[in-house]
């Protein structure tokens, strides 16, 4: 299943049963529709959150030319099993929040990282 999340990006989720682990695995990765050099200008974050739990993955997107299977083979993706998926599912649905940033864009800081008097505006 492909989901276009920006003009140049797409994310893909795959499911795979691994007989060695005797459980179904889920994989999520973001790919840039472009070259590896172009992909190096971005960073993405995938995040699952529910019931006071949070799991996230942050990485440089892969070029669409590298393929999803290569990212999974290299373990360069968000990977989790059925048990983890059930912890984050709401009414049987699993949502993944996707954030994509350009590396030359100023990075926002989390509120916990800010000192008194620091302000950030959109």
TrEMBL record:
Keyword vocabulary terms for this entry: Metal-binding, Ubl conjugation pathway, Zinc, Zinc-finger
Catalytic EC class: transferase
Associated pathway: Protein modification; protein ubiquitination
EC assignment: 2.3.2.27
UniProt keyword annotation of Metal-binding present: yes
One term under GO cellular component: cytoplasm
InterPro entries: 7-in-absentia-prot_TRAF-dom, SINA-like_animal, TRAF-like
Keyword check for Ribonucleoprotein: no
GO BP terms in the entry: proteasome-mediated ubiquitin-dependent protein catabolic process
GO molecular function: ubiquitin conjugating enzyme binding; ubiquitin protein ligase activity; zinc ion binding
Superkingdom of the organism of origin: Eukaryota
Family listed: Belongs to the SINA (Seven in absentia) family.
The record's note on its domains: The SBD domain (substrate-binding domain) mediates the interaction with substrate proteins. It is related to the TRAF family.
Name of the protein in its database record: E3 ubiquitin-protein ligase
Taxonomic source organism: Caenorhabditis japonica
Lineage: Eukaryota, Metazoa, Ecdysozoa, Nematoda, Chromadorea
